[in-house]
Amino acid sequence: MSAADLSIWTRRRQTTRAEIQKALWETRDIVRTSAMRLTLHLIPARDLAIYIAAVKPAALRRLQYWQARMGAKPHHVRAMVDAVADSLTDEPRTQQELIAVAKKKASRGLATWLKHVGIPVRPAVIEGRIVYGPPRGAEATFVRADAWLGPQTAVGLEEARVELLRRFLGAFGPATPHDFAKWSGMNTSDARRVFESARGALAAVSVEGATGWVLGDDVRELMRSELNPDAVTLLGAFDSFLLAHATKEHLVDARFYKRVYRPQGWISPVVLRGGTIIGVWFPESAGQRTTLGVELFGRATPEVRRAIEREAEAMSAFLGTTCSPRFRS
User: Fold this and answer.
1) DSSP 252
2) CATH number reported for the structural domain that contains residue 214 in this entry
3) Is the bond into 229 cis (omega within 30 degrees of 0)?
């Protein structure tokens, strides 16, 4: 059960898994790559240059810290990136195949480093030189971005970051510079500068006495909108909604925080009701059946049970398998 596929399904119930796979590997309208916080994302292929330009400085700073600890010199990394990118076309290669190519072209110092580095293709992904290709069984593959997607129009850093902020606020506002920093992976001072650059397009709003920011164009629609307190939604693991804000008090009671935000960065699939997390769920597949083990934080009322059953039925249609909830006490 792909977390990325579920994330799209949650927001576009009419989309099928076949359409997602076609957009990824045939029409190439969607691209899989490392983006915010150095984590995997599916993003529109036409916008790859925006995401790469916006997050690359922060991502490279984090990566360079670990490279320095392993004794990698900048010229080692540059040689590796060039070797990896130059060896690729739009024919996918696995990481081990790329390591083998890099070792053949490596200087003695780079070859030594390649024996110890955990993810040697990561710098080329961060720079937007390569992206993920179709999986080969359980192994990830990589392709050269310009061969796979065609030429990308270069985007300046400030322009890219302002556009990234606009998309962030359009999806998750109201939010603060600190929220944007945590979500994007950049430092807070850089996030504040992006807010300043975009200030003319933003509007300040008050949320329970705290100031947050939204897009000015969204204010009227937000004022008219109403939250359905009874709406129940199943969100998959690592859903972006759960990562949008630095603080989580508005999402989950502190007593249950660690059942959602687990050790080592794992984020549970959740049951959302009216914008609040009321439980977690975990899939268990056996053949063509998937059991959703639902653990609610409070009493499971008949209305909530029926809503979760409807969500499971809708998920069945998307996954092409029978999904049924099992409520655990």
Assistant:
1) S
2) 1.10.10.10
3) no
Looking up tokens 């909108």, which residue turns up?
A: 225
With CA atoms as reference, report the closest residue to 149 among 190, 98, 221, 89. 89
| Tens digit of each residue's pLDDT, the chain (329 residues) | 689 999 999 999 999 999 999 999 999 999 999 999 989 999 999 999 999 999 999 988 887 777 676 666 777 777 778 878 888 877 899 988 887 777 776 666 666 666 655 466 888 899 999 999 999 988 899 999 999 999 989 999 999 999 999 999 999 999 999 999 999 999 999 999 999 999 999 999 998 889 999 999 999 999 899 889 999 999 999 999 999 999 999 999 999 999 999 998 899 999 999 999 999 999 998 888 999 999 999 988 999 999 999 999 999 999 999 999 999 87
The verdict on 263 and 321 lying in the same domain is: yes
Residues 306 and 176 in one domain: no
Please state the domain count of the chain: 3
Distance between CA atoms of residues 60 and 80, nearest Å: 15
Tallying the residues shown for the chain, one arrives at 329
CA atoms 76, 82, 85, 86: torsion sign: negative
From 224, 250, 265, the end of a domain falls on 224
Range of the domain at 292: 232-328
Residue 132 to residues 38, 59, 257, 293, 328, Cα–Cα distance (Å): 14, 17, 33, 32, 38
The model's pTM is 0.89
Q: For residues 48 and 44, what is the distance between their CA atoms, to the nearest angstrom?
A: 7
Query: In the numeric block, which tokens belong to residue 317?
Result: 């249609």
To 10 degrees, the CA torsion angle through 100, 102, 104, 105? Answer: 170
Same-domain pairing of 241 and 174? no
